[in-house]
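User: Modeling request: complex.
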Amino acid sequence: MKKYLFLLMFFVSACNDTIDFVPTSSFNEIAVWENEASVKLYVNSFYRIFSDYFQYGGRPIGNDATLADGLTDLMKYTSNSPGEGTANLIMTQDGYTSIAANHFDVWTNAYAWNRRILEFLADLDTYSARFSPEVKLRIEAEVRFFRAYIFFLVMRNQGPFIIRNSLNDPVLLPINTAEECWDFIENDLDYCAAHLPSSWPESDKGRVNRWAALAFKSRIMLYARRWEKAVLAAREVIDDGGFVLEQNYSDIFKNNKNNPSREHILTKRYDSNLGIFHNLDERIAPSGDIQGRGGVFVPSQELVDAYLMSDGTEFNPASPFDSTMYQNRESRFYATILYNGAVWKGRRIETWVGASAQDPYGRDRFIEYNSTPYPFSTVTGYYIRKLADETNLDFNLAYKKSDQDCIEIRLAEVYLNLAEGLIELGQKEEAEQAILTIRNRSLQKDVASINGDLKQELIRERMLELAFEGHRFWDLRRWGLADKILNGIKLHGAKIIKQANGTLLYTKVPVDTQHRIYPRRFDQFPLPVGELNNNPLITKQPDGW
Amino acid sequence: MEGNHFMGLEEVGIILTKYRRGNRFANICLKKGSMLYRILFVFLFWISAAAPVSAQQLELRNFLQEVQVKFDVNFLFDDEILKNKTTTDGSLLKQPLDKILKNLQTQHGIVFTAIDKNTFVVKAGPAGDIKNMPQARQLQTENKKLPDSPSEKKVFGHVYDENGVPAIGVNIFDQMTKSGTVSDVNGYYELVCKPGSSLTFSYVGYKTEEVSVLAKNPINISLQPVSSQLEEVVVVAYGTQKRAHLTGAVATLNLSELERKPVDNLTTMLSGRLPGVITRQQSGVPGENSAKFFIRGRSTPTGSGAPLMIVDGVERPFENLDPNEIESITILKDAASAAVYGVRAANGVVMVTTKRGKESAKINLSFSSTYSISRNTAFPEYPDGPNYALWHNKARQLDGLPVDYTEEDINRIKNGDPDGILGNTEWTKRIFESFAPQSYQNLNISGGNAKLRFFNNVGYLRQEGIIKGVSFDRINLRSNVEYQINGNLQASLNLAGRLEERQQPGTSPGSQDITINNYKNIVFYSILARPTTLPQLEDGTYLGWGNPLAARDLSGFYNRKNRILQTTGALKYTVPGLKGLSLRSTFSYDFDNGISKWFITPIRMTTWDYGRRELVYFDRLMPKDIASDKNELHQGTTDFQRTTIQLAADYEKKHGNNEWKGLLLFEEQRTLTGNFGVGAQDLPLSSLPELNYATQYINNSLYGSRGRAGTRGLVSRVGVIHKEKYLLELTSRADWSSKFPKQKRLGIFPAISAGWILSDEDFFKDFAPIVNKLKVRASAGILGNDDIGNFRYLKTFSLATDPQVIFGNKAYLDLLTGAVPNYDITWEKTNTYNAGYELELQNGAWTMEMDVFYKLTSGILQSVAGVYPPSAGGNFPNIVNRGKMDARGFEVILSRRGSLFSGISYQISANLTFSRNRYLQTDESPNLPPWQRRTGQPLGSVLGWVSDGLFQNQEEIAGAALTTYEVKPGFIRYKDLNGDGVINYADRTWIARSPIPEIIGGLNASLFYKNITVNLFFQGATRTDLMLTGEYLGAGFSDGTFFTQPFKWGANTPYFILENAWQKEGNQTEFPRLTTITPFNNNLSTDFWKRDASYLRLKTLEINYAIPLKSSSSSGRSTLNVFFSGTNLLTFSKLKYIDPEAPTVSNGFYPQQKVYNLGIQFSM
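Assistant: Request completed. Predicted assembly structure:
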């Protein structure tokens, strides 16, 4: 019988946990909802939406790492090839953006996030007993902010969407009306404003708060043309938010980790030391900073010309085209643009043609657009100073390591949102004051009033104040001006040639090889192919697609 | 076969009817039979007519052989005399010799004449004529005339096989004089030998016999088969089976023919040798060149499609075993043979059996040593510096752009540049060595007695790459021991160890697939770098965007080691009380520990910008394309453990006419995996790349995890053989897999199979002279597939590996939800049907086996994302058991062995495998145009645009459908399939076949002449396409590659493009316009880039010369084999410029290798 013992031994070792066990390679629901700390980890995942769609993210427009201002008259991408030059291709080649290749599609991603948000909210109900009622409301509000944000992007890019508010909704649903969609977004933002704290404890600083919700509401209600609501939300932020306009425009964009500007309302925070960084400096730095990179997108002559003089008057387009045009401009110009002769990182920027890369003072030189696929140098004679971190000297090799915060919304915008709402409501004086609050800080001396059409001045103010912050393309679209301002134009730059006698000859040159286009159909970008193919309740694309 | 023309059906039919009148079976087949049977019979007849018909086997002769053995006498006879004579009484053998002879004389009228004490000539009675026996006559006369001289002895005799059939063409060889002869058509031979020498008798498929010349004439030899096809015992699932009794589709390869070659990866050697195996070699990187390996092609898109791999009864990979430790490889193809592996068996099973010690009088020792060199099979030719400049200028001119190279530049490239920048550097030639060496040593010792048997093996393979810095080292160790504890109890212990080490530079030498690896590899850089600059500036700075020489020599290293231990202990107990019942238990524990170390050193480089005419400095970290001036060290370990337990009861019993066989087996398997690793940077000393010396850890580079999976199964099998002719087998497995939810875990996989050995039927007797064996068989059953990720039925979350967000002054991770779980997920089911026959003609001179199969896979685990609108947001179980697919095909193998006139014998075997699959049901969006529906399409088809030649001028472009991208003359024109005037995504359709061939075949021919063996192995594949520019995983979009787009990224361009590119109106060329501007229009996935990837390869050629050595002891003899072999020596393909097995999407790949081996093998 002893002989059979070994057989028995094996049977004993065949335990039941061979095929039935708890996973060790991933988390399960019970572990995630264990306590507030673990739920926070879950909530953190929704902040990925900011990493994707804020300016420095992976997909500020659709699925391409292109800044939206590259689609406008403010900024020129220097490459003519897909990737670094996608903005140029979108705005010059009719058909480059198509139903199949839609650079503006947020829809697909929005619903993927929506599903996760709905799962979260459903589970929150299930496990609500684990939290106090206030905490539960706060958690819900924090998560609903992201739903409002991403569906705002859908609304902005692709128009009305399908409101899907429960995991039990049928798979196929029709598109809701625009009003319903705006209500849906507004409702979420109101919920956030009601239940999010005005400020978080120090260890949670950076989470979305009540003011972020209201500031966003002031922006979004402009898109919804709900002027009164925009005004109310803006006022609340300005009056009660405790935010302060910087005295000095350039201070807003300083990379000051210990003491961030009090003008910021919502930022996506970066810190190389914590392993969270982006590559903005490597992309926008003058080529003299980083050989072989930098200069991916640069300011246009059009933007340079738009800045006011330091006394608040307009720049005279007939003034001589030479270095004098850089004199006596408003302070936003100097904070935003690097031009030939500007001081940067202790050197003078020299963008004249033909400066050799070996020449320590010529590496920022001008290169003709379309002469090489990836110039990595300016094609307009300018570089971007705003947003760039002048203290960052180390990105030359570690090219992704920029860590200035990405400012998504700041107090100045809220003032301008307020102004726009008021203009539309006919309250001109108050609107004028709001604009002047912003304008005056970059003028040498305050001006008391605004000459000219207030709406036009608001448009200019948004263009200058919010340059490179990703607003102009969307603003022009919602104002119905995009096809007038962006269509049929060529952007310009300053080509500077060093004469034999050492003087510099400035020439205004077009930097687009083709005229830019803005077809009317861009006012509403198409839905994904899969939506029309698989959802019989949606029968057609927006007009023109 | 010469002299026979192929007869038509009718013609043969008539002859056959005449010849075989009265044969029932033939008549049935010819008159009433189906076309298939007609063809079969014509085929059989054709074979029989083609080869000489040998003498028949008669029972009287068998009796005489027994007499010979019993009384140690020899009979010399002619078959004619014994024809149609049968003995009546087996008991006769018990009588003394003279009585027997007398008895036979009276019974059969034959006369026995003694010519010496032990030898009798058998003559017919009164009418018998000795003249009919040429050999015998000679021996009577000449024997007397020519007595043996001291220096010469005439030896003669008769050679016959195990059935007593004269063996024709047996090689008989005098070891001393080195002279030899072959046996004649009646099996007789004679040879003048040196006394004291010894004779060897060798014959294909039989054991070589050796006899001392001192033996008395005639020296008659009965050859014993190595293994006859049908008598052979083959390894099947959880046991063995006589080949004759197989009812499933099983193919076997005994590795003797492969074993001498130093194979670094067995998968590459199997296709074309084993019918049913389809492979595609992926790369030539040493240690990484495993082929994609499928049995009967693919029948489901789920998982890798790789078969279940079993080594010595336990699930284990086999590709890195030492060929010398393998006894046989068996492929289980149909449900009948594989269903016992249940949920893991849908892709078929490969079973490898390692060698065991055999009971023998002496210890066998074998030592072999091989040295090889390898070279690229095909790599495109590239222009050198001056030619590149000329072609590039030409392209720039066509683009209407200023040229990059002035006359002065070209002069500098040719004759030297005072600035030390321009020059002529042929990068592709510089990175490849002229050859890559490889060596292989093997030693094995085996032997045993009734108590203890052992086989010990050690093998060492070292392979260097065609690119310096690449190498593969492998040591295989094995000890298989069997110990008979007592009459009833046997223990065995198999221990195998393996050490593998793969070395590469810090930059990958060449990736297989850009979707898997970093495509920026050394080969990529060697094409990317323009050949018009020097490798380095005078100050040592490397030139180039990515300098291949720097990447190879200075980028650090990537070193991977694996330590593998495989142990199996088993006990077998024959239950004494119950005859036929035995119990066995197996416990096995496998362990694979991997250690990887990747050290990356940054290389400072500068680029000459041709447009700007200046040096552009920038720093790049070549291996990873992230920029950091710090070196990095990434070190990690993986471990893998698998425990398998098997408990089995076998029962075997003969009961009357029935032979019963049963099996009941319980199996449980547990797999544990784990990994751990960390990265550090800024090591002060490159020569000491150890984590200890790093000054800084890389943020978030620490990782570690563990995972597990398990299965449990209960196997039963019952087989019965009735009258040795009728075969029936029922198997089933109940399987539980941890991959499915509790209530969906249990799966039952039954199979039934039956066989009928027709050749053993009475009605078949008339065919017996031609057809020795004919068996038909059929099977049906269900197989499963659980090759998906774990826990698809659970809601899971993954924790980010990198911090995502900052709050306060801390970075936080996040938890991301996974896909929506499928609470009903279960395995895929494949219904498999198989029918086949096995045929042996003319005593095994011809064998043929054919199988046809049909597989229907349902419940395919597939993503249904494509049928839901994006607005559903993925709120549905993503993977569901929904799809349906079928696969059909056949395999046929035909072998012939025999001899040619001048003492050359041969063995030829040809096989062909065909397998075609298609989607029967797959979830597709209802609005998809019909030309894009996947349903009905084979797996792996390529979606893309249909090309319509090249635009020749602007007018043609103006008249054509609109495209998204710029179009110029010389660009590809696309067909507007839906006629809407626009070329867009809707105009895509299925344009190319899978890169996995539908048809693969092999021809294996061996020639034996005296001591020389020549083996040729051709492998061919067809019905497969290669996309020069590939599809990005189903998206239908693609990008230009170095093999389609001239001067992509300024890279060098192979001559095949340059010389065949469109240059002016009227050019109908293979490649579009010569341009330096990215032609997006041409870089789509289109049939313009499709090439037929059919090929025929001389996969191996081997020549072996066996030198018998004088044995030092009397106990045995020693042999020294000297051999040469080559792999991939010749390739015939429509692709002139690239290897037909090159990866489909590629910007530079490590080329396939042709290998030349020279080796010796010594055995004693």
